[in-house]
Recover the amino acids of this structure.
């Protein structure tokens, strides 16, 4: 089912672990686990409470909902079809193959992923390069739209296609069919692609890869998963015989291990006809190899593992408890257990989050919960990012809070808050069911194919949760906690950190001793803090709407309030239960003197960390349980902004406006929370330069801006030590105690007449004392001339090339459009030439813009990750493409691809709140006509190759650019790269 808490299946690199959000996981630990399988599984079936058992058989399988047609062809291929109208004229296609790196033979390590690459390099119906070129010509963007990923247990191909033309749809199914059984796997093409795959492998090198090699054998306890990372082994990639690749394709790309997912703007009967026409003829091999999933043995006892690396910027600890074999069967009992599991994880993580807010916290951040490690195994993990106190206090806090839960359980208010949050989230998903993007549904059906996740539909799930969630009591959650955190079971105590000689990493024995001492420490029951139920009373005397105007061209209402604040309203039906709010004016950080910049740059973050009115951030979280509302304020270099988000209910919208009012009028001073926040910042900054990328970024910024006092340089530890609470709070109040000059843009699912009284009550009563409303040009400019620098950092054979062009420019919306076209076409050339033809990079990009503030100027930046031995060829190839664009202009085919992709994207954007949000903000910032969003198509259609060529000539000034290259810190690493390339 489309549970609101289940995230879409993503490419490796984004580990989702049950109720523990990625944001709660320590960053380094999440990065280390980046190549783990993206599967979700249900917990072991547990007894279901009598209140639910009477109505629901826990062993019964949740039926497939009526929203989707699920079928199976005679050859075993499963298919899913759902008609869905968002976005219009678009169809999402997926080919799901239940085969990944865990199935590789010894001579195939890395070839499951290599095969994914080859899917774009020639097939029955598409010559090499023809597939990507064709799809780009119909508006499908390589990378952003057309993509694929390989993990341990699956390979998934993603293809969105426009549906205005029947041929596009037919060809889309042809592409899927070719991927399934029509790859050519030509030897010359295989040899050419080796370099691209090796460049992708190079991107993954660094501290994370080195630590995974130590961690995974222990995490997977010696199972095959530890030996079969999807990226594989470089010597196999470099030298594997084509037959090994073809053997993997024959063995595992077979219909009984495949699913086709079709969701979007299509007649389901036509979709089913196309599936049968393209896939019914596929045959399974005569001698099928058994598709098995490796077993993971339990730990024999408690163990400790210490892993260090000098390039790690964040130290972490984790407690990994025994894994359970828990394949998902999609039953009602499993669903109930998922809810209990989620409640447990949320409540415990909230407790750990509160501990992190102490003046001297035991850790910087922490989270806990049960998550899937593979499609069949799951386990409980508690983890934390370490502060200045190191591993000891963190381990003690994690274990003692677990012990507190075991002994005393959770409280009724804690349970009630998570009930509200879960049910409110499902209610929002239910309300949004007719405006849900097709991509969410294809991800859900992909998970069903891979892990058996239930797909009863949001209507059925919402009703089921309404019956189940209120019936789950404290006894059930507490019993789950005691079962999940056993005292007598072995666990892995893990430390991952840098090599800091001033504070050496603990030994394994020290970790075990710290854990044993913490488990022996007595704990007392937690005392629940009594809180108000509402944020504030509505202002007794509301403001007034003194002027109102309509713009019928694009459905805008403009309001002027009695305090001078202006509001632009754009009601939409694009996304149900979503309202977005943004306040904007000129101002920003550059209004303050350089000596104040540390206080300025931390001002809004410090204010946010201390809460509002009488409430800490965690108080606010508790008060707002069951409501969707959030607000933040930011000082940019030249702007002051206030962002808000809410659901569409009257209470959610009013809560958002109350939060906005309090951000301006009731910032809170809390020295304890300030010390906690700054302590974390200091710890982060103390370790930041451990990573090569941070050192490279610092040199790049300093080179661009010649150490100008206002350059956008990351804050340093010295900066953080200069921050003063009262001065920082005074700066915050100086800019945000007044709403003078603010224009608010409100977009989403609301009724104008009903929302106007709320706007008058809250935005109309914000004080507007005088303050500076213009930005200040402080003379920040990018250096002129040709400047080249090299940065030596990192022990791996990795390099990055950054090239930046800049200078004065005449800003206009038309010029911004021409720059956008140039950048998109240059990116097509970079991928076609530097990647596909020359094999110099795996990925690379160019971005550029023309800006009006603080002066009219442009900047273009190119970023090329590559190898030390390929730096000069990559630079030469980039400048050759730049020169070609200046002298010959773009090929008409590339210009046509840009226009087609622009039209497809724009049609989608016109039905998205975020696009209108950006358009109206752009209009406020630059004083342009917001209706241009519906007339800009003619400007795009009028663009010519000569326009793009002239734009290239105007901005690619090869006598004025900055080039900074990151190379390994030792020549030895570069030699390793050269040696590997020569084989």
């Amino acid at each position: 089912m489309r549970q609101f808490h289940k995230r879409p299946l993503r490419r490796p690199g984004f580990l989702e672990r049950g109720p523990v959000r990625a944001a709660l996981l320590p960053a380094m630990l999440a990065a280390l686990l980046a190549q783990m399988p993206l599967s979700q599984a249900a917990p072991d079936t547990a007894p279901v409470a009598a209140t639910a058992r009477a109505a629901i058989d826990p062993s019964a399988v949740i039926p497939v909902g009526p929203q989707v047609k699920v079928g199976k062809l005679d050859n075993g291929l499963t298919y899913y079809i759902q008609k869905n109208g968002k976005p219009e004229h678009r169809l999402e296609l997926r080919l799901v193959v239940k085969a990944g790196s865990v199935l590789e033979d010894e001579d195939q390590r890395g070839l499951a992923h290599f095969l994914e690459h080859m899917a774009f390099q020639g097939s029955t119906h598409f010559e090499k390069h023809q597939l990507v070129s064709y799809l780009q010509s119909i508006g499908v963007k390589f990378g952003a739209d057309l993509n694929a990923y390989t993990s341990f247990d699956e390979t998934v191909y993603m293809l969105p296609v426009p549906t205005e033309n029947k041929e596009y749809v037919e060809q889309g199914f042809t592409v899927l069919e070719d991927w399934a059984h029509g790859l050519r796997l030509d030897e010359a093409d295989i040899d050419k692609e080796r370099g691209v795959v090796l460049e992708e492998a190079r991107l993954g090198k660094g501290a994370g890869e080195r630590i995974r090699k130590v961690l995974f054998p222990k995490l997977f306890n010696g199972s095959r998963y530890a030996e079969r990372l999807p990226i594989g082994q470089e010597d196999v990639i470099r030298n594997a015989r084509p037959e090994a690749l073809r053997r993997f394709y024959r063995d595992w790309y077979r219909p009984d291990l495949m699913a086709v997912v079709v969701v979007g703007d299509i007649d389901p009967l036509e979709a089913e006809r196309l599936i049968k026409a393209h896939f019914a003829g596929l045959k399974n091999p005569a001698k099928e190899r058994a598709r098995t999933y490796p077993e993971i043995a339990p730990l024999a006892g408690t163990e400790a593992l210490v892993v260090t690396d000098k390039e790690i910027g964040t130290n972490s600890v984790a407690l990994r408890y025994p894994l359970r074999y828990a394949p998902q069967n999609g039953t009602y009992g499993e669903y109930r257990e998922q809810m209990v599991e989620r409640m447990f994880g949320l409540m415990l993580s909230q407790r750990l989050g509160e501990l992190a807010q102490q003046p001297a916290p035991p850790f910087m951040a922490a989270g806990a919960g049960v998550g899937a490690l593979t499609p069949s195994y799951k386990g409980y993990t508690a983890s934390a990012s370490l502060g200045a106190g190191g591993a000891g206090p963190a381990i003690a806090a994690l274990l003692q809070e677990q012990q507190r839960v075991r002994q005393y359980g959770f409280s009724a208010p804690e349970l009630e808050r998570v009930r509200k949050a879960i049910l409110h989230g499902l209610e929002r998903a239910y309300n949004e069911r007719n405006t849900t993007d097709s991509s969410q549904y294809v991800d859900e059906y992909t998970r069903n194919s891979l892990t058996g996740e239930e797909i009863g539909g949001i209507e059925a799930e919402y009703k089921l949760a309404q019956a189940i969630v209120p019936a789950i009591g404290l006894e059930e959650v507490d019993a789950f906690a005691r079962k999940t955190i056993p005292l007598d079971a072995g666990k892995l105590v893990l430390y991952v950190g840098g090599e800091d000689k001033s504070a050496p990493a603990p030994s394994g024995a020290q970790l075990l001793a710290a854990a044993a001492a913490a488990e022996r420490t007595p704990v007392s029951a937690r005392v629940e803090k009594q809180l108000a139920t509402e944020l504030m009373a509505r202002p007794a005397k509301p403001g007034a709407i003194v002027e109102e105007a309509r713009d019928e061209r694009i459905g805008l209402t403009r309001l002027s309030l009695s305090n001078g604040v202006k509001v632009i309203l754009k009601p939409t039906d694009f996304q149900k239960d979503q309202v977005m709010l943004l306040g904007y004016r000129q101002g920003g950080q550059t209004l303050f003197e350089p000596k104040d910049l540390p206080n300025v740059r931390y001002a809004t973050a410090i204010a946010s960390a201390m809460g509002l009115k009488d409430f800490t951030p965690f108080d606010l979280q508790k008060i707002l349980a069951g409501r969707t509302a959030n607000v933040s304020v930011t000082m940019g270099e030249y702007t002051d902004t206030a962002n808000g988000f809410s659901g569409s209910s009257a209470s959610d919208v009013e809560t958002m406006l109350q939060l906005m009012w309090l951000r301006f009028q009731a910032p809170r001073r809390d020295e304890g929370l300030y010390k906690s926040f700054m302590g974390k910042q200091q710890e982060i900054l103390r370790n930041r330069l451990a990573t090569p990328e941070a050192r490279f970024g610092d040199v790049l910024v300093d080179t661009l801006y010649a150490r100008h006092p206002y350059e956008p340089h990351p804050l340093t530890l010295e900066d953080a030590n200069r921050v003063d609470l009262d001065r920082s709070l005074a700066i915050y109040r100086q800019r945000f105690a007044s709403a003078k000059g603010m224009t608010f843009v409100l977009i989403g699912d609301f009724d104008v007449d009903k929302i106007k009284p709320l706007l008058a009550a809250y935005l109309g009563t914000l004080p507007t004392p005088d303050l500076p409303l213009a930005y200040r040009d402080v003379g920040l400019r990018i250096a002129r001339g040709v400047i080249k620098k090299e940065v030596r950092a990192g022990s791996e054979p990795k390099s990055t090339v950054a090239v930046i062009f800049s200078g004065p420019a005449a800003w206009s919306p038309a010029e911004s459009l021409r720059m956008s076209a140039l950048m998109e076409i240059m990116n097509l050339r970079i991928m076609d030439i530097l990647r596909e033809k020359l094999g110099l990079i795996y990925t690379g990009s160019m971005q550029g813009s023309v800006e009006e503030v603080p002066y009219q100027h442009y900047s273009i930046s190119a970023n090329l990750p590559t190898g030390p031995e390929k730096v000069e060829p990559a630079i030469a190839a980039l400048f050759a493409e730049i020169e070609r664009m200046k002298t010959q202009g773009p090929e008409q085919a590339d210009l046509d691809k840009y226009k087609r992709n622009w039209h497809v994207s724009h049609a989608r954007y016109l039905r998205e709140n975020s696009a209108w949000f950006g358009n109206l903000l752009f209009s406020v910032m630059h004083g342009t006509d917001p209706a241009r969003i519906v007339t800009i198509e003619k400007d795009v259609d009028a663009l010519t190759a000569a326009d793009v060529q002239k734009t290239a000539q105007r901005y690619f000034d090869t006598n004025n650019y900055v080039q900074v290259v990151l190379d390994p810190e030792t020549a030895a690493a570069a030699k390793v790269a050269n040696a590997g390339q020569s084989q």
